[in-house]
Specification:
alpha/beta, Spore Coat Polysaccharide Biosynthesis Protein SpsA, Chain A, seven-stranded mixed β-sheet, 30 helices, 9% strand
């Protein structure tokens, strides 16, 4: 046997045969160590004759295929005829330099790797003399393969591999990217390396690449990912969909004409059309992959995809009707089109997947991760500008209207991001929340990178999936609160700390200093990572050596420099922010709240996530003979466990806020994601937890879409009673504006509006009335009560003869201060407490309480 066989597929390459064979036989290789097998696919330019002429004097063979030309088929035919166990595949057009063949084949020959790829897209690799459009096509082709492939150049045509690996390639494999077929057929079972090559464009002959090749590649990529999407299914789906559009639009128009309301109309029309579509799709559109009769489990999957598409469509419809002012009769068509892709891809990959040649569970999870992450991001984008601000967001918007180096109850990052977003996109919900979206994407990227460093690419993709579907990740990626930049900074700090402490990269300390400093500018909680880092250095002997080097101390100085605006603000304001946070920790009030802490954690992680986190923390053991894995697992345990212990201790004497523990779970998410793909290494409990993830993921994403649709358009049959106290401030602001106008007309004076809460009411009213500069809005600190930053913005109020309009979420808020002081003596001629019913699109949603007084006497002196 020869050492290796070179398989060269050809189609009209007569001009290149002589040069190729000459350069191959000129290599510093013994002639009897390799053979060259040309597999011709029906050339008409004399290519077979050229090859035969060489076969008389060299170890060259010719195989002439009579089947339909297909690159994959040609290569597999050459592999079957080879006389060696190591195969090298290369093109005949000399774009693959023959001189680099020894470098490509050596790792397989010496048994270091099972596959060696000549890569254009790693350090040292390059492309010469290729037109820009070809480079773009190649890059895009490689990029879309990256989610299911673990190499940088999955579309390379120059590679070496062990012959037996070809036996696993599917009989359905077609197209011009056999390397992808080889990698996917043996994923997780082989050792792969990439070697840089210089790829140059052909100088003789014409390229065989065509649109049909690209189409076949995409089709095969979809099939390898487990989908049944194709031109046939897409065409049938489109025909069925067109019929569904007609039904959908007609029913929608009929219901709108009878004043059924936007939500009810699009719900009913969608369900009628979707049920009809399912019947036709199951029996016709995807008949090549299914028996054609209805299955209950398929129908359940169809309902899941349909509900997601419906709830996303509601956001698109609301955006068109309420923001862009498109008539409902016209808006329904782009709304249908916008969500048709969700239905089709959901059907192709989830409702009617490829059951004959299903991909591995690992690839199925990767595909699910891609689809769900993209849907979650799309859901945020659609609803960002539609869902009203919660009072917290309005309060931080107020920060941005009073820009400063820092603030009383939080560091300044949230204000800086809101200021930047609103400066570009305007003072609207989208402008405020764009920072949360970007922070979520940053957190996702760093967590992906950390998970890949700790485990592998599949785990990294599942980690992204967990981040977007768990409440701790979805909420912080949607709402513009301090936790949004905190999550991003926490994830970045974890990444750099792992690189520095575990991987021992000196350059990572620079990133750690920047990330930690930005985290301190976001929320002081990130300081817990500093305590965890110190604990890790003390416990881990390898990391302990950093204590004698300057890098940790320089990183700390850099973080302190970034944090200096907060220090300067506190210095100028009697250390107010530090005192406020210290009071929270050192308060002498006692409230045992560990049970609350665990309840909050269960909600933030979901019950399945909480159980998985506990299992990951306490049950997974790494073998002693794998020191790196043991150190990585110790890193996860320390950086999750230390912050958790601190919160548990704090909750013994004080009640924690609901969202406080959210960031501490970022360190353990990669381990939880790893567990999902390694059920065989877990016990019975672990396997049950893994089974519960599918239902948890579907429930979470449906819940987010449901809530967003509910607060924007409503849900037919479900009254507005879930968010009445802290939501619907746009409608409330309209009522308060009208009350203020009535008072102004009656008295001829501009009233002072006082939100009777710490900051919620005043901030929400300020945002939704900010276009009306005449309104003077204050907070309850006007009456001597605490008002957070309002005590700095509006520190005191002298006696005033202007009318006072108190506004509160509850009646009692207008009667007494938090300390129980009666408010009436502070008011001149206070009226009775009244309320108005706030309506949204004609539906009652909440009450707002108010009281009108003729003036303000001043704060009552303390006893």
């Amino acid at each position: 046997m020869t050492d290796f066989s070179i398989v060269v597929p050809t189609l009209n390459e007569a001009e290149n045969i002589d040069s190729l064979v000459t350069r191959l036989t000129a290599l510093d290789l013994a002639p009897d160590t390799f053979e060259i097998i040309f597999v011709d696919d029906g050339s008409t330019d004399g290519t077979p004759d050229k090859v035969r002429s060489w076969a008389k004097q060299s170890n060259v063979r010719l195989i002439e295929r009579r089947e339909k030309p297909d690159l994959t088929g040609s290569i597999l035919a050459g592999v079957a005829a080879a006389n060696s166990n190591v195969i090298v595949v290369m093109d005949a057009d000399l774009s693959h330099p023959p001189e680099q063949l020894p470098d490509i084949v050596a790792p397989v020959l010496n048994n270091s790797f099972d596959v060696a790829i000549g890569s254009r897209y790693i350090a040292g690799g390059r492309i010469e003399n290729w037109p820009l459009y070809r480079q773009l096509l190649s890059r895009v082709g490689g990029l879309i393969a990256r989610p299911i492939s673990d190499v940088n150049d999955a579309t390379s045509g120059f590679f070496a591999f062990r012959r037996e690996l070809a036996n696993n390639i599917s009989n359905h494999a077609r197209g011009y990217k056999v390397l992808l077929e080889l990698l996917m057929a043996n994923q997780g079972k082989i050792r792969v390396t990439e070697i840089p090559i210089c790829f140059s464009d052909r100088t003789r002959g014409a390229s065989k690449l065509s649109f049909s090749h690209q189409q076949a590649y995409i089709q095969r990529l979809i099939t390898l990912a487990g989908g049944t999407a194709s031109l046939n299914t897409a065409g049938r789906f489109a025909v069925v969909g067109l019929f569904g559009v007609i039904i959908d639009a007609l029913i929608f128009q009929w219901m709108i004409s009878r004043d059924a309301g936007l939500a009810m109309s699009h719900f009913v029309s969608f369900f009628v059309a979707a049920t009809t579509n399912y019947a036709f799709n199951s029996k016709w559109s995807f008949r090549d992959h299914h028996a054609g009769y209805l299955h209950w489990h398929q129908f359940g999957r169809f309902l899941t995809v349909g509900l997601l598409a419906l709830l996303l469509r509601g956001g698109v419809l609301a955006l068109l009707v309420y923001v862009l002012k498109v008539p409902p009769a016209l808006a329904i068509f782009p709304a249908i089109a916008a969500t048709a892709i969700v239905n089709y891809l959901g059907s192709a990959f989830y409702v009617f997947p490829d059951l004959k040649n299903p991909p591995s569970i690992d690839i199925q999870w990767r595909t699910a991760a891609i689809g769900i992450v993209l849907f979650a991001v799309l859901l945020r984008l659609v609803y960002f500008g539609l869902a009203q601000l919660i009072p917290d967001e309005a309060y931080y918007w107020q920060y941005a209207q009073h820009m400063d180096l820092s603030f009383y109850d939080h560091p300044p990052m949230v204000a800086w991001l809101i200021w930047l977003g609103t400066s570009i996109l305007g003072h609207n919900e989208f402008g405020i929340r764009i920072g949360a979206l970007l922070s979520g994407l940053i957190a996702m990227s760093y967590l992906y990178a950390m998970a890949q460093n700790l485990y592998d690419k599949s785990t990294a993709m599942r980690t992204m999936l967990l981040l977007v579907i768990l409440p701790l990740g979805f909420g912080s990626g949607f709402l513009m609160i301090p936790d949004a930049p905190l999550i991003a900074a926490w994830a970045a700090t974890l990444y750099y700390m792992e690189r520095a402490l575990v991987a021992e990269q000196r350059s990572a300390w620079l990133g750690m200093g920047i990330a930690f400093g930005l985290g301190l500018l976001s929320k002081y909680t990130v300081g817990l990572l500093g305590i965890a880092a110190l604990a890790f250095v003390i416990i881990d002997p390898t990391a302990r050596r950093w204590m004698l080097r300057p890098y940790p101390y320089l990183a700390s100085l850099l973080a302190l420099l970034l944090f200096s605006p907060v220090i300067l603000w506190n210095y100028e304001n009697d250390w107010a922010s530090f005192a406020f946070q210290s009071h929270r920790v050192l308060s002498d009030r006692y409230q045992f709240a560990i049970h609350q802490l665990f309840l909050h954690m269960i909600v933030l992680l979901t019950p399945i996530g909480f159980a998985a986190a506990a299992l990951a923390l306490f049950s997974i053991k790494k073998p002693a003979d794998r020191p790196l894995e043991r150190r990585q697992h110790l890193f996860v345990q320390i950086f999750t466990g230390i912050p958790l212990i601190i919160f548990v201790i704090a909750s013994i004497t004080d009640a924690p806020r609901f969202h406080w523990t959210g960031p501490i779970w970022l360190a353990i998410l990669p381990t939880i994601a790893w567990m999902i793909g390694h059920g065989d290494q877990l016990g019975a409990i672990g396997k049950r937890i893994i089974k519960g993830w599918r239902l948890t993921i579907a429930t979470c994403i449906l819940a987010y879409a449901f809530v967003l649709h509910y607060v924007v358009l409503g849900i037919p049959g479900i009254p507005y009673h879930l968010f009445t106290e802290h939501y619907f401030w746009r409608e409330t602001a309209n009522e308060i504006t009208q009350i203020a106008a009535d008072v102004r007309n009656q008295t001829g004076k501009e009233p002072i509006i006082v939100g009777m809460s710490k900051w919620s009411v005043a901030s929400a009213l300020a945002f939704y009335i900010h276009g009306d500069a005449a309104l003077d809005i204050r907070s309850r600190n006007m009456f001597g009560d605490s008002g957070a930053m309002y005590e700095y913005w509006f520190p005191s109020q002298a006696p005033e003869d202007r009318p006072i309009i108190q506004v509160g979420m509850k009646r009692r808020h207008l009667e007494k201060t938090r300390q129980g002081t009666d408010l009436k003596p502070m008011l001149i001629q206070p009226g009775s407490i009244e309320y108005r019913v706030i309506e949204r699109y004609g539906t009652p949603v909440r009450r707002v309480y108010y009281r009108i007084s003729e003036g303000f006497r001043g704060v009552a002196p303390a006893n």
